[in-house]
């Protein structure tokens, strides 16, 4: 049976640094989805190269982050595979 592993604490508490180390041994090879990191990477790609509007760029990066997260979750469910998520619940998306 697959596992869901969620790492969520306040900003600056070390989630990103410790995410892999916090996984149980049986999930140690699992990639941990880091929504904050994904968002920042996408924002850097979008602004200002693809959008001159910071607000529009943030909205696009957020939408792409949600889509990536939902796609990974759906893929894990379809393949009946474990999934690990690192982040916080600052919006209803996760």
Structure description:
With 94 residues, this protein is mostly helical. The protein has one domain. It has helices at 15-22, 35-46, 54-79; strands spanning 4-7, 32-34, 83-86. The model has no long low-confidence stretch (mean pLDDT 89).
Structural class by secondary-structure content: mainly alpha
Which percent bin holds the helix content? 40-55%
* Average pLDDT level: 89
Number of helices: 3
What proportion of the residues form beta strands (DSSP E)? 5-15%
SSE string, helix = H, strand = E?
A: EHEHHE
- Our count of domains comes out at 1
Q: How would the global form be characterised?
A: globular
Question: Which consecutive residue ranges, at least 5 long each, have pLDDT under 50?
Answer: none
Question: How far apart are the first and last residues' alpha carbons, in Å?
Answer: 22 Å
Question: How many β-strand runs?
Answer: 3
Largest sheet: 3 strands, parallel
């Amino acid at each position: 049976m697959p596992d869901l592993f969620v790492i969520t604490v306040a900003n600056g508490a070390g989630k990103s640094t410790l995410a892999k180390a916090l996984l149980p041994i049986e999930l140690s090879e699992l990639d941990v989805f880091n929504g904050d990191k994904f968002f920042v990477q996408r924002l850097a790609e979008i602004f200002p190269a693809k959008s001159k509007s910071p607000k529009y760029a943030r909205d696009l990066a957020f939408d792409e982050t949600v889509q990536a997260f939902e796609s990974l979750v759906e893929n894990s469910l379809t393949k009946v595979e474990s999934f690990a998520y690192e982040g916080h619940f600052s919006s209803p998306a996760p």
